[in-house]
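Thread: quick sanity check before group meeting

JM: Hey all, I'm pulling together slides for Thursday and realized we never actually wrote out the predicted structure for the chain we discussed last week. Dropping the sequence here so it's in one place. If anyone has concerns about the input, flag it before I start.
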Amino acid sequence: MVGLGPKQPPSRKGSMHEVPQDLLGPIQDFEKAFTVDKSKLKEIVNHFVKELEKGLTVEGGNIPMNVTWVMGFPDGHEEGTYLALDMGGTNLRVCEITLTKEKGAFDITQSKYKMPDELRTGTAEELWEYIADCLQQFIETHHQEKNIAKIPLGFTFSYPATQEYVDHGILQRWTKGFDIDGVEGKDVVPPLEEILKKRGLPIKVAALINDTTGTLIASAYTDDAMKIGCIFGTGVNAAYMENVGSVPKLAHMNLPADMPVAINCEYGAFDNEHIVLPLTKYDEIIDRDSPRPGQQAFEKMTAGLYLGEIFRLALVDLIDSHPGLIFKNQDVSKLRKPYLLDASFLANIEEDPFENLSNTLDLFKSELNIQTTEAERVLARRLSELIGTRAARLSACGVAAICTKKNIDSCHVGADGSVFTKYPHFKARGAKALQEILDWPANVTDRVDILAAEDGSGVGAALIAALTLKRVKAGNLAGIRNMDDMKTLL
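JM (edit): ok, ran it. Output follows.
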């Protein structure tokens, strides 16, 4: 794993000096709109901490701070064989994971199955039948023997769900293009288990998890310094371990105050009221035209789904407000199509190694049918840098808020998601922001070190199933729905 130092990417030769005077003004306007300075970062984090605390109360707030009923970290000595089912937006993945005696070690066998497009708007029965088909195929392929003992399953269901128990989850709303009638507002575990039972498959759901919680637990399995799990991808989210005594909405359960419980923050909804986030007019357009205006404010400024759209809107604004200034006499009709560009478009511009930005020239031509001048490409690169840097600096605010709330001076953060793994300089820019927010000395770079995460939706799901059964064995009933059912897995 590679830590984050705050080292910034080197600037290329021949940048702003060669930009015509008439383009310098718009570039400066973009710099003013997208730059988030140290004092603003600190203001955001202060509000963020209050919102995290509010989400843990009975009243709640924009950030739901979902209790996951994952009660503590693995000790590295978990053992046994578990199935993990990862239902993503495009693929379904089934893993068999054997946790071995050696601390932090595991063996994994896995298969991927493409989710048919028609399933996204099909019936609930078709969905559960398809999942059961995949599980059955996996079992039949990897277990020739008969009379297999019942296998515990960790089900990674990365859609917003309310959990009263670790093996229970009521779908709040579909995301990722799914719109299947008869599932929202219902527990997703019983219909799956009913079909598994009907088919005689030796599988019992031991835990329903979110990929962020899985990332936290899987990363902690191999790294004792891991305290936070994050997703920086199509969406943004974090999970961390809280003491039950600091969760007022659990007070009625009279659980031990020092008992740990993982909290799935779902903090993409931070600042839906638009109190502190430095919104540009492009952010306001994205929110206004989104399927759910007024929701997921933080996500819409930082997540991979929106970075390309922010870039597109800024260029269209420049074309309309300064006719003939850029792309003169070019057909820009393609550029006017919402969500045509994704974060990879910006990433490719930032990674262009050539002084004349010839890769960017090819990119605009192939994707947008626009022939660019070198000055226009320099402007596009600077705009990409500004949007990418803002996303990284704002993303660091969520991590800093959890560290501030928990008085964490030093820790590792496990991070997954396409923006973290693929967007150039995202890690370094985030580290620089953390240094500014948390007032580290100039020579300190990594007190809070963000590292590439372990497989949260696979290994994390298996580990959470293992931790749940360990609790059942110890008689800890908190967040366990049916103790007798769980005992059949021991």
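AS: nice. The chain has two domains: 16-57+269-409+411-446, 68-223+456-487. Confidence is low (pLDDT under 50) at residues 1-14.
JM: adding both to the slides.
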